[in-house]
Amino acid sequence: MTHEFECPYAVGSVIKIHLKTPGGLEAIADAHITKVFEPFTLSSVMLIRMACSSLRLEGDMILKLFDRRFATQLRDYEKIRPWTPGLETEYHQFILDGGASEFVAQLNDGETPEGSTWSAAMDETYLHDHMLDLYKTEVQVYSNLKEIQGTDVPNLLASAIMPIPYPDQASSEYTDIPGILLQYIDGFPLTDIEEYIPRESWQAICEDTIRVIDRIGDLGILNEDVQTRSFIVREDAGNGFKVTMIDFALCKFRQDYKDVYDWDKWKSIQDEEGAVGYVMQRRLKGGFSYHRSARYEKLDEEFRMGQ
Predict the structure, then answer these.
(1) How many structural domains compose the chain?
(2) End position of a domain, from candidates 184, 208, 243
(3) 184, 204, 226 — which closes off a domain?
(4) What confidence tens digit (pLDDT) does each residue in 19-71 have?
(5) Domain range holding 253?
(6) Structure pTM?
(7) Inter-CA distances, 200 with 195, 204, 267, 274, 288, Å
(8) Angle formed at CA 190 by CA 186 and CA 192, multiple of 5 degrees
(9) pLDDT band (50, 70, 90) for residue 7
(10) Domain of life, per the record (predicted)?
């Protein structure tokens, strides 16, 4: 582990989570952690084994928790000190004093003081509120992608809450950890393709990756954090290999943009296709030749001519 204190997310640990399926069924279950995917970035991701017969959820699954305490990438980016139990005590008192609810209201109204004047408790409140936004975004993305769940993206099995109880605390609004329970895709990252797959299959796999990106875009999603590590390759019986995309916390939605022109402009700027196509073309050194799709060629003509 990379933390100076005991982290609850360790192989062999059992954590209790409250689950709610997309269909509205609820249950409390024990999640047995069998693998952790470190380093933790925006979320804490782990492979868990669970037997929850009331929800018909049994076997290996991915649990993704949006836990501000261990959001290493976000804390580094925001220049917020690493979490410690002492910080948590200060944050808890801030909640009890009503400071957290007041500060979140200020955040939502854009009336917060400059970051240099924030206390450690304010930092924790900001992180909790931001992580909640990331969680809500990812849940909404999976909802929008319902028709391709189980193929191009994993199935969203349930939303999850890991309770963090404190004495004398009437509400858990600012302490409970939100998360999602996902189908486990038994495969390997696209970045490891050279290690696992014969060279003659690289072109088809990378083309399938581009197809997945474009399909998700067709369903009204703009991903601001497309990374080659966000794709899992698995064997597809009788059909070679299949690519599945993960990680959707940093996405925007078509309805967020005022018109088609605005949407297309930002799709061009983000260049989700190129973020994978050009990178894999360089990485595989002749093993994959990236060809822009017709949609991105059109975006290039409209927004990138002369650059």
Answers:
(1) 2
(2) 184
(3) 184
(4) 999 999 999 999 999 999 988 889 999 999 999 999 999 999 999 999 999 99
(5) 188-303
(6) 0.92
(7) 13, 8, 31, 22, 9
(8) 90
(9) confident
(10) Eukaryota
